[in-house]
Design goal:
alpha+beta, single chain, 8-stranded antiparallel β-sheet, 4 helices, globular, Pnp Oxidase, Chain A
Length: 160
């Protein structure tokens, strides 16, 4: 991936605090939702409740699609909104791990006092979303399929 494309992705993602996330049920039924996120060490992390359908979906089928898309009001043409879609695999992070504590510290810095409250609830789970490819659409006839091993560095939540 060229530095220019990395910068384009960083610029696009930088305006968001949530990600659109498509998952599927064990039976293959697609579902779309969203979640606040933090990027730490090249992986996007989401903290999800068992009450949300996407949590059960990720537990039974860890594949997901993550979408960041330009706001309609900012787009020159609605049919060519700037966007990046990542193919990702979710991994559940153990609550007792150092990784869990470090990511939750970033999430608390990013989202404030709500995070300790949510962390105290046993039905919440931290997932790391590892990406293996992305499609960046910058406009009409300007799409790029990219192999990637994680989110482009130095794209971290502390940069956003």
């Amino acid at each position: 991936m060229t530095q220019e494309l990395r910068n384009d992705i960083k610029d696009l993602i930088g305006g968001f605090e949530t990600v659109l996330m498509a998952t599927s049920t064990a039976e293959g039924m697609p579902e779309i939702s969203y979640s606040p996120y933090a990027i730490v060490d090249g992986e996007l992390h989401v903290f999800l409740s068992d009450l949300a359908l996407h949590t059960g979906n990720l537990k039974s089928n860890p594949r997901a699609s993550l979408l960041f898309i330009e706001n309609e009001k900012d787009a020159e043409k609605l049919h060519a909104r700037k966007r990046v879609t990542f193919a990702a695999t979710a991994k559940l992070i153990d609550r007792k791990s150092d990784r869990y504590r470090s990511v939750m510290a970033v999430m608390e810095a990013r989202f404030g006092d709500i995070m300790p409250l949510l962390d105290s609830l046993p039905d919440f789970h931290l997932f790391a979303m590892h990406t293996d490819c992305a499609v960046l659409v910058k406009g009409f006839a300007d799409a790029h399929t990219l192999e990637c091993d994680g989110f482009p560095q130095p794209l971290e939540s502390t940069d956003l």
